[in-house]
Amino acid sequence: MKVSEILKVKGNILYTVPPETGLLDAINLMTEKDIGSLVVMNNGSLVGLLTFREVMRAVHANQGSVGHGTVGEHMQRDVLTMSPDTDVNDIRRLMLERHARYVPVMDGKVLLGVMSFYDVAKSVLEAQNFENTLLKAYIRDWPAENNTEGVQ
Question: How much is the pTM?
Fold first, then answer.
């Protein structure tokens, strides 16, 4: 299964912010939209990613307060990305290796979506359930063997 197939099912709603967005404004957006990440774009290019992890680091650095910083000050800059042709098993491995919960999907310089660890797990579970259903149907409909040996 390819990432592009998961994106088709997931939908194409994207939330992005520029790096000069206030951190509190970004947190409010994430809360209102019930999302775990925001892609940070500057002049049409991906420049970072803000996730719950970066928010918690900012709160820790500000001794329990969000502070008055911007998204650009707190965002993750070294962002793992994937193409729509990436196989789900490859991205699953990469997400585990890099401890990445969210990965932007890029077609060249064009942002297509964000793949979350939840999206990957859900798609794998659905694929396994579909496979199991097919296998059970196959076994249930197994043709009876014609036992005619020795019959004359």
Answer: 0.79
